[in-house]
């Protein structure tokens, strides 16, 4: 059957994306699902669960509730918990069962807000899409509800940057600090960082930004909303390596205040225009991270790459005609057979037989399996260059 994985894993679901996106904003996130499923969304997909408290709950949906439609139980439980815990907001989302039987989650959120006075909203999920859809929708809902009218005072004369799409599903803990420090070192001021190392205050002041840096597909819907709502342009890419980081910084400066068509060209072709294309090296994973890494490899080492996008969702505008998007195991195995060197999460290695494999753990794919390995790789910045160059 198509889209059936016999060997490799699958990406975190949209419900996990919602939990990860909303983890640090002080709200109460509740998934309408059966009791016992909370560990899937927290301990397996969320590394902050062990070090940082967050109000992440599950409704405890029973078979009788699903069959008979006992929405009042869910509403009253939500209202009672919200009144006791006093969160900044209440966010709810659906697992596959509520989505299949057509529970009106919007109406439930409306009823909870009416009873408690606490801002409440539904994030559309069905448990069948990836974390990109869930987290992207969650950030968008949060911004629509809390982002305030901009105050464009800029006493320092620096360009204010919004960092969008920063979650531990795509980035190791601490990456937000590194990107903040990089932006400040090249003359920018960080206005907001959405997803990690943040608070609700970051969401409220998003409109004060001059430009947005979208570091994963998760941040693209929010970036487009900020552009439409407040005319804030954005650039897509992850600052990997010195040379590609310099390219991103220059594009952030250029995109501010240029004509709309030119801004869109800068947005969608940052990584593409600096890449060398060669099928011998394949970068496997989410589109923004993978194309940014491919561009960095080209600029730093003069090596060509091909990106194999494996989520099946996200910002496909970053892919070139030479790249390939595929979330089917059999098709992916055929495409991987064309490469000699493969860079990707270790759980892809079993379908890369006979190839040189460079392990690059991705939490959204392998969860907590390789956290120690990922930490070691971060502490050894030249590991990728050594493995690549030694093969050439």
Descriptive overview:
Strand 9, helix 13 and strand 10 form a beta-alpha-beta unit. The protein has 17 helices and 13 strands. The model has no long low-confidence stretch (mean pLDDT 88). It starts with 13 loop residues before the first helix and ends with a helix. Helix 1 crosses helix 7, helix 7 runs parallel beside helix 10 and helix 11 crosses helix 13. The longest helix is centred in the middle third of the chain and has 16 residues. The strands form three sheets. Strands 11-10-9-12-13 form a five-stranded parallel sheet, with helices on both faces. A four-stranded parallel sheet has the order 2-1-3-4, with helices on both faces. The chain has a four-stranded parallel sheet with strand order 6-5-7-8, sandwiched between helices. By secondary structure, it is α/β, with parallel strands linked by helices.
Summarize the structure.
By secondary structure, the chain is of the alpha/beta class.
């Amino acid at each position: 059957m198509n889209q059936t994985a016999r060997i490799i894993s699958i990406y975190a679901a949209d419900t996990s994306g919602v939990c990860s996106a909303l983890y640090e904003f002080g709200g109460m996130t509740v998934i309408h699902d059966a009791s016992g499923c909370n560990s899937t969304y927290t301990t397996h997909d969320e590394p902050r669960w062990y070090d940082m408290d967050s109000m992440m709950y599950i409704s405890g949906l029973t078979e009788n509730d699903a069959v008979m439609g006992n929405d009042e139980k869910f509403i009253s439980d939500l209202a009672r918990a919200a009144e006791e815990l006093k969160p900044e907001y209440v966010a709810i989302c659906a697992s596959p069962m509520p989505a299949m039987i057509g529970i009106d989650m919007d109406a439930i959120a409306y009823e909870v807000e009416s009873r408690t006075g606490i801002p409440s909203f539904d994030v559309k999920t069905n448990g069948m899409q990836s974390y990109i859809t869930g987290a992207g929708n969650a950030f968008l809902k949060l911004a629509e509800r809390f982002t305030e009218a901009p105050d464009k005072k800029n006493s320092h004369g620096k360009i204010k940057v919004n960092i969008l799409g920063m979650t531990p599903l795509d980035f190791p803990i601490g990456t937000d600090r590194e990107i903040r420090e990089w932006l400040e070192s090249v003359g920018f001021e960080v206005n907001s960082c959405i997803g990690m190392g943040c608070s609700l205050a970051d969401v409220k002041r998003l409109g004060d930004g001059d430009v947005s840096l979208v570091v994963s597909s998760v941040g693209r819907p929010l970036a487009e909303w900020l552009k439409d709502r407040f005319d804030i342009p954005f650039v897509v890419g992850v600052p990997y390596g010195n040379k590609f980081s310099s390219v991103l910084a220059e594009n952030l400066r250029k995109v501010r205040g240029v004509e709309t068509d030119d801004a869109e060209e800068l947005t969608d072709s940052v990584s593409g225009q600096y890449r060398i294309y060669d099928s011998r090296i394949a970068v496997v994973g989410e589109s923004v991270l993978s194309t940014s890494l491919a561009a960095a490899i080209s600029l730093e080492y003069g090596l060509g790459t091909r990106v194999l996008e494996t989520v099946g969702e996200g910002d496909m505008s970053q892919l070139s005609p030479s790249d390939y998007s595929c979330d089917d195991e059999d098709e992916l195995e055929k495409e991987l057979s064309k490469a000699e060197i493969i860079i990707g999460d270790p759980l892809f290695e079993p379908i890369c037989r006979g190839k040189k494999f460079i392990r690059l753990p991705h939490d959204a794919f392998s969860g907590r399996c390789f956290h120690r390995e990922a930490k070691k790789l971060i502490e050894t910045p030249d590991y990728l260059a050594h493995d690549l160059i030694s093969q050439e």
